[in-house]
Design brief:
Bound molecules: pyridoxal-5'-phosphate
Shape: globular
Number of helices: 16
Radius of gyration: 20 Å
CATH architecture of the largest domain: 3-Layer(aba) Sandwich
Helix content: 40-55%
Structural class: alpha/beta
Distance between the termini: 63 Å
CATH topology of the largest domain: Rossmann fold
Strand content: 15-25%
């Protein structure tokens, strides 16, 4: 038996090795069991799969292409770097893949409203989009700090008809938004459906979100075979909660010759509170209803986390990543704020691709890996999203260093 086979993990209780599971109040467990049963039934239903595939094709624009970054690769003089262009998806990132799946499931279960947290606003926009498309109400919980930083996405959600609910607790960022959304969900888990934004949370979410994102790796595997006649030598993806990474990795888990790298944000430094490198620095613990690696203080409370990328600053990580780390199948590396910003400008200026700052973390590591792997090798990087949402922030904070002062200066 190959324990890595997609349909063999997690086990019936939602465990990937020692991680995952469901740690929720009893009144919620019944609802989660219903969601699991409904999902497993629909997953096998040709009409559901056909509807989702039709939306991926006609609405999202799938398959997303793979693109050889020829100029950049030549300049490095090492491995060829290919990008899986999730930035070209409708709404600008990979998140629409699981939002459509979750919203379709919610609708089939007769739910009236989808709710969720959002960090950079990408999940909120993707979910608000799916809700508008399918005629569902939508409430998005967002930290006040992120609301200021990611203003265009806030406007998008409102235009799409969603309610954006500001969260003023804690650091006013992603973890606090998850806390608030959980609280709201507990009050009414019957008419609402919590559409989690990554491969995190209690079972069945890490499994379900992975399954919806696995389209990325399935396409990429076929595309790379067609394009180069073989599998890529290495895969690289950034890891916040871990959905774009698991989406790419899943189709390649059994190809032992394919190296896989997840890239976490080391932020400003490895001092507590200055990074969000959960798998690199964390220890097993429980947060938001699941067990996984967790950045925690001595009392076991979630640590303060930080990254220049709002979509990566979460103190937990998907349980399947904890498992893949422990068995050594995936290596987890880091990129700092400064390295990600450097890669953001490199991709923009060498390839005309303005990446999301999240994706720029993967690119930053891939640039180093290309040099060390050397010529004749191929690296496939998940370009998880585009950087439109980040341009004002980058110009304001880093523009001067790159010869592009803030507007009017
Ligand atoms: C949200 C987001 C991420 C981080 O989430 P994962 O679940 O780790 O993929 C990465 N890239 C982009 C563009 C995002 O919007």
């Amino acid at each position: 038996m190959n324990i890595l086979k997609n349909d063999q993990l997690p086990d019936a209780r939602g465990y990937f090795g020692a991680y995952g599971g469901s740690f929720v109040p009893p009144q919620l467990q019944g609802i989660l069991d219903e969601i699991t049963a409904a999902y497993l039934k629909l997953k096998a239903e040709p009409a559901f799969i056909a509807e989702l595939e039709g939306l991926y094709r006609d609405y999202v624009g799938r398959p997303s292409p793979v693109f050889l970054a020829a100029r950049l690769s030549a300049e490095i003089g090492g491995a060829d770097i290919y990008f899986k262009r999730e930035d070209l998806n409708h709404t600008g990132a990979h998140k629409i893949n699981h939002c459509l799946g979750e919203a379709l499931l919610a609708k089939r279960m007769g739910k009236k409203k989808v709710i969720a947290e959002t960090g950079a606003g990408q999940h909120g926009v993707a979910l608000a989009t799916a809700a508008a498309l399918l005629g569902l109400e939508c409430d998005i919980y967002m930290g006040e700090v992120d609301i200021l930083k990611e203003h265009p996405n806030v406007s998008r959600m409102k235009i799409l008809g969603a309610r954006v609910i500001p969260v003023a607790a804690g650091l006013k960022t992603l973890k606090d938004a998850v806390d608030a959304a959980f609280e709201a969900y507990l009050k009414d888990p019957v008419t609402q459906f919590y559409a989690i934004g990554s491969v995190v949370g209690p079972h069945p979410f890490p499994m379900m979100v992975r399954d919806f994102q696995a389209v990325v790796g399935r396409e990429a595997r076929r595309q790379m075979l067609e394009r180069t006649g073989r599998l890529p030598d290495a895969l690289v993806a950034c890891v916040g909660g871990g959905s774009n990474a698991i989406g790419l990795f899943t189709a390649f888990l059994e190809d032992q010759e394919v190296l896989m790298y997840g890239v976490e944000p080391s932020g400003l430094s490895f001092k507590d509170g200055e990074h969000a490198a959960t798998l690199t620095k964390g220890k097993p613990g429980i947060l938001h209803g699941f067990k996984s690696y967790l950045l925690q203080d001595e009392q076991g409370q979630p640590q303060k986390v930080y990254s220049v990328a709002s979509g990566l600053d979460y103190p937990g990580v998907g349980p399947e990543h904890g498992y893949l780390k422990d068995i050594g199948r995936v290596r987890y590396e880091c990129a700092s704020d400064a390295e990600a910003i450097e890669a953001f400008f490199t991709l923009s200026r060498k390839e005309g691709l303005i990446p999301a700052i999240e994706s720029a973390h993967a690119a930053a590591f891939a640039l180093k890996l290309a040099a060390s792997l050397g010529k004749g090798k191929n690296i496939l990087v998940n370009l998880s999203g585009r950087g439109d949402k980040d341009i004002d922030f980058v110009i304001e904070k880093y523009g001067a260093a790159y010869g592009v002062g803030p507007a009017g200066k």
